């Protein structure tokens, strides 16, 4: 079918159909192709070009999120060497780790059997960058998070320097009670000191536990001073003589200005880039017998060291770039436990029991306690009620207590009530309570119907109690106030307000049925 225009004034159907690509006319080119831009094609092209250029610029400047995260990880996990001292005491200028020994398994199972507090042992005071601050500053700053982490290998985030409060170059031994500052490992040009505010403010409280916050400060102020105190009461008495602070020994790190202890918040985990850790605050905690709780126990460690690796591994790649943190933590924990066991064995102490042994020992103690309670109960029953005394041939049940004779708190009744007697007493008490409630409802109804405060019917000893035993609202001008003439002397006299037609003939109208003028309300007990 061809496209021919016979007349300029006439309209041909073939001419109209040839303008469409599906009409079968090959003379007209197609009106649409894949290269045609539709809509805001120019704006989309410019936006994609800007995104591509911005991405290339950030990649060259190492400003991408993944690059900044990697920079932060490489910076905070960079290995450091701790200061090894031969005398075993803490000095100013030492590079140390602040380790939380945590509770032993027996204590953890007894105090909190449904919590895995055994996992909180051997944790180190660490610092990390907040999840929302990696893109802004991938290094330690005053807004960094202070937590306790299970990582024990010494690196930038969990190693600190003990500094003298006045002169940083002093390297003398630190005694109990001496002030010192805890400085973080350098990641910038200015130093950072461990800081805690004595009072809770909006920006000085932890996120979950709402306790005084522990953070970094870039200035030297009184809030950055700390003290070390022993746990032993005898050493506390000898503190004025000057006792040096030992390494790898449980102690208390106290804030010098507020007097509170550095504490672990074991019930409030904190989510960081390195995993789930626990918050750190300034709070003094005690156990059930008012001793310093294990949350306030810390220890200074300078001999943890970096775990040794095979030579071929070190030769193939750099250790800081390809180290597995989980494997390092496991090796360090096993090495620490082995060293601790050797030290305890050398000192002659008993080896720490496993959780299974602790549970078995706890069950045996509970069984012994139950047997002892049963024995005491039988002895008390025997001595408090001699008529039911029995002879126990077994030596497990003595006739008297081993220390002092028991004291009977109350005598055993000779006759016990039966079920029928108890049921009768209960029904009688319930009936009395119901009768009293019906009386109160009746008085309320009479007040609602008559509108007279204190209105009651004639006294009947069989159906109602004495009038003098209850409180009524009386009017000063009424006939039964104050001489207690109620309802014209025990007669059923109705008293509708403003009318006298329904009063009985025996009523004295001058005393009872006269309407009072503006009565004054009083509350009295007759």
Automatic annotation (TrEMBL):
<dbReference type="Pfam" id="PF24569">
    <property type="entry name" value="CFAP161"/>
</dbReference>
<dbReference type="GO" id="GO:0060271">
    <property type="term" value="P:cilium assembly"/>
</dbReference>
<dbReference type="InterPro" id="IPR055325">
    <property type="entry name" value="CF161"/>
</dbReference>
<dbReference type="GO" id="GO:0031514">
    <property type="term" value="C:motile cilium"/>
</dbReference>
<protein>
    <submittedName>
        <fullName>Uncharacterized protein</fullName>
    </submittedName>
</protein>
């Amino acid at each position: 079918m061809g496209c021919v225009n016979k007349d300029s004034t006439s309209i041909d159907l073939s001419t109209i159909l040839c303008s469409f690509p599906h009409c079968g006319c090959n003379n007209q080119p197609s009106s649409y192709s894949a290269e045609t831009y539709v809509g805001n094609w120019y704006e989309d092209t410019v936006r994609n070009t800007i995104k591509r250029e911005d991405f290339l610029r950030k990649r060259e400047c190492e400003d991408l999120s993944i690059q900044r995260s990697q920079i932060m990880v490489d910076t905070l996990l960079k290995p450091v060497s701790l200061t090894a001292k031969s005398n075993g005491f803490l000095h100013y200028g030492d590079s140390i780790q602040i380790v939380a020994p945590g509770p032993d398994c027996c204590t953890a199972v007894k105090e909190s059997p449904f919590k895995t507090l055994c996992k909180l042992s051997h944790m180190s005071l660490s610092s990390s960058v907040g999840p929302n601050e990696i893109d802004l500053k991938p290094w330690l700053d005053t807004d960094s998070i202070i937590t306790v982490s299970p990582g024990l290998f010494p690196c930038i985030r969990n190693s600190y320097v003990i500094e003298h409060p006045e002169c940083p170059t002093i390297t003398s031994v630190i005694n109990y009670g001496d002030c010192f500052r805890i400085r973080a490992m350098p990641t910038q040009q200015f130093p950072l000191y461990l800081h805690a505010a004595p009072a809770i403010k909006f920006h000085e409280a932890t996120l979950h536990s709402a306790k005084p916050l522990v953070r970094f400060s870039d200035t030297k102020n009184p809030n950055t001073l700390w003290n070390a105190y022993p746990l032993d009461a005898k050493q506390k008495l000898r503190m004025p003589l000057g006792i040096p602070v030992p390494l790898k020994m449980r102690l208390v790190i106290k804030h010098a200005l507020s007097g509170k202890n550095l504490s672990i918040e074991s019930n409030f985990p904190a989510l960081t880039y390195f995993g789930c850790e626990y918050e750190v605050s300034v709070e003094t905690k005690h156990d059930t017998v008012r001793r310093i709780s294990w949350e306030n126990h810390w220890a200074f460690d300078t001999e943890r060291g970096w775990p040794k690796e095979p030579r071929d591994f070190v030769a193939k790649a750099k250790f800081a770039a390809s180290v597995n943190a989980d494997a390092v933590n496991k090796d360090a924990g096993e090495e620490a436990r082995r060293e601790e066991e050797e030290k305890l064995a050398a000192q002659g102490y008993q080896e720490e029991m496993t959780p299974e042994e602790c549970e078995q020992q706890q069950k045996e103690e509970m069984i012994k306690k139950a047997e002892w309670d049963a024995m005491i109960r039988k002895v008390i029953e025997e001595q408090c009620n001699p008529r039911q005394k029995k002879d126990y041939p077994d030596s497990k049940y003595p006739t008297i207590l081993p220390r002092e004779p028991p004291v009977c708190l109350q005598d055993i009744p000779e006759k016990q009530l039966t079920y029928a007697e108890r049921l009768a007493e209960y029904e009688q008490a319930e009936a009395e309570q119901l009768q009293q409630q019906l009386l109160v409802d009746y008085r309320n109804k009479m007040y609602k119907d008559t509108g007279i405060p204190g209105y009651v019917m004639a006294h009947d000893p069989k159906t109602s109690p004495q009038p003098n035993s209850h409180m009524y609202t009386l009017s000063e001008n009424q006939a039964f106030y104050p001489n207690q003439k109620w309802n014209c002397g025990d007669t059923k006299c109705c008293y509708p307000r403003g009318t006298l037609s329904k009063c009985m003939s025996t009523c004295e109208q001058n005393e009872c049925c006269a309407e009072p003028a503006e009565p004054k309300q009083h509350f009295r007990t007759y």
